Amino acid sequence: MxxxxxxxxxxxxxxxxxxxxxxxxxxxxxxxxLMLIKQxxxxxxxxxxxxxxxxxxxxxxxxxxxxCNIETFNNTHSYNNTALIKELKKIxxxxxxxxxxxxxxxxxxxxxxxxKNSIIAADEIENTEDNYISFLCKSPFFSTFExxxxxxxxxxxxxxxxxxxxxxxxxxxIMLDKLNELKEYKDIALLHxxxxxxxxLMLGITxxxxxxxxxxxxxxxxxxxxxxxxxxxxxxDLHLQSKKPNRDFYNLHLNQLRILxxxxxxxxxxSIIYGVLDSYESYDGSGYPKGKKRSEIxxxxxxxxxxxxxxxxxxxxxxxxxLKPIQALQSIWENRGTRFxxxxxRILIDRTNILKSGQHxxxxxxxxxxxxxxxxxxxxxxxxxIKLENGNIVDLLSPGTK
Length: 402
Prior knowledge:
Number of helices: 16
Largest sheet: 4 strands, antiparallel
Number of strands: 9
Radius of gyration: 21 Å
Mean pLDDT: 87
Number of domains: 3
Low-confidence stretches: none
Helix content: 40-55%
Distance between the termini: 33 Å
Structural class: alpha+beta
Strand order of the largest sheet: 6-7-8-9
């Protein structure tokens, strides 16, 4: 189903109607509130398939009409068209209900419209237009994750830390320039950096790390993707096609970190460097480069490894469609105590919105419906009881249901 508007330059259709060549006029977010594609993304066959796999097919999207090209759209300032903004506001409500995160209109409209963002100071908005900080602060997960925290104390801290992080990056021209390079490098690296930084900060705030350490944690995570931009795209593509992290890529990564540390004194802290390097280690000692285990692995490394792994699984990082969020959580849960720190995994599970009673869930093509509760949330938090769309009740903890 699709229909044109009276202005003829955009079309409203459903996700299941997306075609190769469509240009989506707003971001699309996953059910966990993290970004799947950025605004103005040109859809390929593979990407259309990924979106249809991860997002409900009936969700409305707005695409550029085939009769209009993106250059004309920009030159005529059509992004500021009243009819388009009105439709974006309408579908924002449906997308908010789908991801169970309140989407600000600033997360949907073009940054050039200059709508106020609650994280960026008013006198800095004009300087953040279409730069990395704008992408980060408009991300629904990043802008609202304090609502997943129980105490007002943690919620207040989360808001403050996000403001300090944005301010720290905006005041460091070299850091901001390096992050802006992600926009021109690979979309998947840009989105990965935003999503993983959001997750890492939420985990660090829940662990009540001091303010300075939280900023360092975010910078360590951002460094991983900043360093990737220094690697030729062909080599990065080979890495993605390998389907998993590997030691050769780690060595490339390490070399780029050495170069970056010469340009960015801000990242020369031991905690930041070890946060990056230790993210390749495994909790049981089977990782690399040092085979560290348990508390030998820096806390930053243990946090970042979980944030990175989760987004790689759901985002289809390694040239695949990715897993649904609950499937990724299940995989991470099953690797607690082996690859991942079980205590930090528990925090991630408890803070996610997708494992709450009343939440709509897509576990597979067979198991779709509403979470009714759990047989054993303490020991099996990724196996809910689901009321299927046909009215049947299924307990994913029961043998033979997965």
